[in-house]
Amino acid sequence: MKINVQIPKGEQFRSFYMFFIIASMQLGVGLIGIPRIVFMEAGHDAWISILIAYLYIALLLFVMLYILRQYENADILGVQADLFGSFISKVLGTVYILYFIFYILSTLVTYIEIIMVFVLPDSNAFVLGCMLLIIAIYTVFGGLKAVVGVTFLFFMFSTWLFVLLIQPIRQMDFLNFLPVMDKEIIDILRGTIAASYTFTGFEILFFIYPFVANKEKIGKPVFLGLSYFTFVALLATNIAIGFLSPAQLERRIWAVLNLFKIQTSPIIERLDYVVIAEWMMVAMPKVILLMWCISYIAKRIYNLSRETSVYTSASILLILIPFFNEHFIIQRLIDNVSRVSYGIVYIYPFLLLPLVLLKKKTRKK
Amino acid sequence: MRPVKKRANQADLPLSMDEFENKLETEVLNSQDLSFTVYKQENKQVAVFYIPYLVDSTKIEQQVLNNLLDMQTECTADSILSEIPLSSGEQVSSIRTIRNKLTEGYVGLYVEQENQVIMYELGKTEKRALEKAETESVVVGPLIAFTESLESNLNIINWRMNTPDLAMEKVEVGKRNPKETRIIYLKSVANETDVNTMRQRLSDLEIDMVEDIHIIKQYILDSSTSIFAQFVSSELVDRSMYAIKSGKIIVMVEDSPFALIAPSTLFSFFESTEDRYFHWTLSMFVRFLRFLAAFVTLLLTPMYVVATTYHYELVPSQLLVSLGESRSVVPFPPLIEVFLIELVIELLREAGARLPTKVGQTIGIVGGVVVGTAAVQAGISSNILIILVTMSALASYATPSYVMGNTIRFVRFPLFFLAGFYGIIGLMFGICLLVIHLVRLESLGRPYLAPLYPLRLADFNKAFYRLPEQTKYKRFLSYRPKDKQLFNKERAAKRRDIDE
Amino acid sequence: MRTAKLIPLFILIVFLQACLETTQIEKLAIINSRGVDLIDEGGKRMIETTLIPYIFDPRAPDMTSLLTGKGRTIKQARVEAEKQSPYPLVPGKINIEFYGKEAAESGILPFLNTHVRDAPVSDIMQLAVTNQTAREILEIEQQSVELNRTKYLQDLISKEVEKGTLPRITLQFFTRLVQQVGIDPILPVIDVVNGKPTLTGAAVFQEDKYVGNISVKESFMANLLRQRLRGTPIDVGVPRENYLGEIDYKGKLTENEDSIYLSLMLHTGKGKIKIVDADSLAFKADITMKLDLLETSIPMNIKSEDTSRKFERDIEKYFVREYENLFAKLQEVNSDALGLGRKYITSRKGSKTTNKEWMEKYQDAKMEFDIDVTIVNFGAID
């Protein structure tokens, strides 16, 4: 396996789009639940937990970029191949594929569950899964250009949803945030850990890095993307805390959707339905990008054709989706995926860093 | 004597007059069409032959026959050439070439026992005069439209844009019946890659013949499965001129009054030449209106299906009563109801377009009013739906491009079927697919959604809104024109201070 | 080509959609108003629910009809009521919900539970209490109000909310306050007066239990402590003997009237509760009101700034008295509608004060009112 990858100029994209890729990977269905998840641990100091998560991830992204910059044009697979050899790299690549498949699965089933609870109670999870996967497959077959474009446009087309938060903001009760630092530090850190599932997604950087045309400028959009998501998460959490009473927030699984429920318009009275449908544009870029990643890794380590890997992973997902039809099974899936993500996403890059540095030193000698 | 082109001598000639006539008649396919007259001049026989409907007979009389009969010198090929001083005079010696020339509208003169035939081009092509554009109607600005004659089209272009920079490359398209096709662009502005791509695509074409530019268009599309038109085709000279000026390429073919403008973006279909002539606030307003109209066309009836089939919660409480009341008499599910009414509208549109203008208008109005009212009274449709369908049909005609208007109306059908099948989620699924499709689409290798994706904020001034012309000092950058600057911003922005 | 491969999947979707049940708008009985009562039936406590749904029958003269059902749970009662309806009853458009006196006194949270859980139910549904039974109100509404009857009550209440005399009364806001420690909700009371539904006052709650009645003006005063208000009409009485010099009325005055009544409009007003001393539970409310004078019960000649100041002082005194009465009333029924507890809890870091603990303390709370009134406008005459 080659360490550095050659990307033709036509397939590269400008670093500017990294902002949307990172932000879109982190946005998604997780955002809907984040207020409650963090609130359960950190109480109304949830915003501190989120800020701590932000700082940690900013450091992590710095490390990830540092590792990638040691090579000419490598992705994580190349780095692993350089450090551990081809075989172990393949094993690790497979781990990534599996992780991504389950990550997609957790995203899809959560979104499907939301649709079934809020909009279409009689709908069929399999059909909904089919529709969502068609969107992903259709985009991935358009190549990375289309993947990036769809990510970008979906991001743009769904940003207007924030406008609908005006009404809940006006009804916020700021007394809900007092007293500050009500909880222990340990609770706040626990809140940070709870938020981590929602924050994952930036690991895409490890795979998409070689495709960026002007790499020297990649830092700014990546950090801005993370900051954007943090801002959104803070916004959602704080509005939820201010708008809902603690007892309400503890019981609402999808607190963010509750915020949209009081907004009306003269033409469409219940905008929460529109929001849930529109959320497809928030949730899908993640699935699309991960699907692209899977096909990219499969091509790189097994030399599988893009079509084969996409169709295979889509079929696997489609078969799995109907089995995750109960709320608690879905919760267990999410818990497990986030547990794996602690290792793969939050700790692994820090383990990699000394090895890369060591390798660099020996190479110099 | 004028220098004339000499052709390679072949053994076809000389012949006696009868032999020549026979030979010509066997060669020329529609021999009964050939007019072959023999004149006696001095002691020589001179044959004048042509195909009557291809030549201008008054010209023959005035310029050929008069001169020929007045000739004082002895009649030979050379003397005829010098006595009848028409610039197109040629000496031809092969029967086959003569045949070809005849079908192109030449007149032949043959002096007995000579080994040359003299041919003059006195063809006449039927063409119509320059007229107003029919399919793209504008209120303000030049109205002149292209015609079927490439010659006069090139003439107009040259007249409108008289610069040595203008390139009009010639490409022959069609195997059996090659037709002259021109690629027209500004050398110093148009992107070379685009020109090369276009040239390549045109010369790679292997088709029998081209009836119209739209045939070529369909062959050189980037994606033939896409319903979205990837090139703007316009009969408005003004529009083509603007395209050339902004660095695009236009393609014209003989016999077609349309120019193909490439590359094009989705947003260029919402442009009208008038936008540039109006005050910018007005044209900005109109531009937004058109985008709004497109959204309305796409989403109005599908939203009706969504609200009445699955999500009654969406309907405002005030409207719920009247909607429910009028729906309650309709025996069909909303999807069928919408489909029926949409079908009626489409039929009216198609019938109106096919019938002569005056009858067509009547059909449109009478049909719309009568069918709509009757449908509501008969309980086939709810009155709210009639309003919605009418609104969305109206909105679809606000798109300046007829093709794009049709496309948008067509795309609505799958959308409301999806809405009928899966409610608001189905509708959203359809919209997502539409967005993805548009992202994947290219026009002449350039992204179709430019400048939205790839994002180029500088181009928004042209594609979405229109600030005053003074702010548009750059060309449409998404197409990477060679010459980016339209004028110097600094110099243009320099102003005098008050009372200076 | 790749697109062509997706076509079978499309067809699959179309076929599988057969499982999706449509809910066509005309084939639903869309509930518009709901009433909940507790009744005694053979010694058993039963829930009776009264529903007004839209039933879209082109032949029926009336689109709305009144359905009632009884049951042990609210769901059961609805199923019972559904037996009288040709179409399934759906709750997505309930705009207003009434609670009879008994039902409200027993606590309304159990009745709301199903609403909160059910996603299609609108969060901006309005809640109201009646001192009669909800059924009576809805029946009266059905019989007496001629014009657009289903919207009548809704507009009656939302008008008051817009003016600021009533706090927000949406389902979302009510459930938020019910479960919030240290603040209790207020809902409007609608009774039948002279055969017409009329807003007679406001109900104060202790958590979700209806415990006492306050007037509309008192509800405004409580609301002023919660949010910034504007455009609310206010009536104030000031002692007449202070203004003998300014009275501009030559005719004979009614003898036994010793107050002058002022009709005012709240220009802007806001109030804030502060803690003076957390341990002794001393609170203080700072309220500022900017008012426009619209009308006086006796024509007056407001010549100088002094008169204006005098008015302001008297209005302040009036409101202090009213606020003290209100506070005493609320303490008596043990309802913290003003939200003192919220202030108290936010000042106690790390303590997990429960509602019960606070309610014990609430009885000992003392409150001072500091009101600052400015009259900004006197109309076109002075």
Automatic annotation (TrEMBL), chain A:
Superkingdom of source: Bacteria
Pfam families tied to this protein: Spore_permease (PF03845)
First-listed, main subcellular location of the protein, grouped into a coarse class: membrane
Parts of the chain that traverse the membrane: 16-34, 46-68, 96-119, 125-141, 148-168, 188-209, 221-244, 279-298, 310-334, 340-358
The protein, known as: Spore germination protein
Record has Transmembrane as a keyword: yes
UniProt-listed PROSITE patterns: NA_SOLUT_SYMP_3 (PS50283)
GO MF entries: transmembrane transporter activity
Gene responsible for this protein: gerAB2
InterPro entries from the UniProt entry: Na/solute_symporter, Spore_GerAB
Family, as annotated: Belongs to the amino acid-polyamine-organocation (APC) superfamily. Spore germination protein (SGP) (TC 2.A.3.9) family.
Membrane topology of the entry: Multi-pass membrane protein
Subcellular location: Membrane
UniProt entry keywords in alphabetical sequence: Germination, Membrane, Transmembrane, Transmembrane helix, Transport
Gene Ontology biological-process annotations: spore germination
Entry GO CC: membrane
Automatic annotation (TrEMBL), chain B:
Domain of life according to the entry: Bacteria
Pfam (any one): GerA
InterPro entries: Spore_Ger, UPF0353/GerABKA_families
Protein name listed in UniProt: Spore germination protein
Transmembrane stretches, start-end: 288-310, 384-403, 415-439
Mode of membrane association: Multi-pass membrane protein
UniProt entry keywords in alphabetical sequence: Membrane, Transmembrane, Transmembrane helix
Highest classification ranks of the organism: Bacteria, Bacillati, Bacillota, Bacilli, Bacillales
Family stated for the protein in its record: Belongs to the GerABKA family.
GO biological process: spore germination
Compartments where located: Cell membrane; Membrane
GO cellular component: plasma membrane
Coarse class of the protein's main subcellular location: membrane
UniProtKB/TrEMBL annotation, chain C:
Any single biological process term in GO: spore germination
Gene3D superfamilies given in the database record: Nutrient germinant receptor protein C, domain 3
Chief localization: membrane
InterPro entries named in the record: GerAC_N, Spore_GerAC-like, Spore_GerAC-like_C, Spore_GerAC_C_sf
Spore germination protein N-terminal domain span: 23-191
One of the record's GO cellular component terms: membrane
Keyword Membrane carried by entry: yes
Pfam families in alphabetical order: Spore_GerAC, Spore_GerAC_N
Keywords: Germination, Lipoprotein, Membrane, Palmitate, Signal
Domain Spore germination GerAC-like C-terminal: start-end pairs: 200-379
Localization: Membrane
Similarity comment: family membership: Belongs to the GerABKC lipoprotein family.
NCBIfam families: spore_ger_x_C (TIGR02887)
Name of the featured protein: Ger(X)C family spore germination protein
Protein species of origin: Oceanobacillus indicireducens
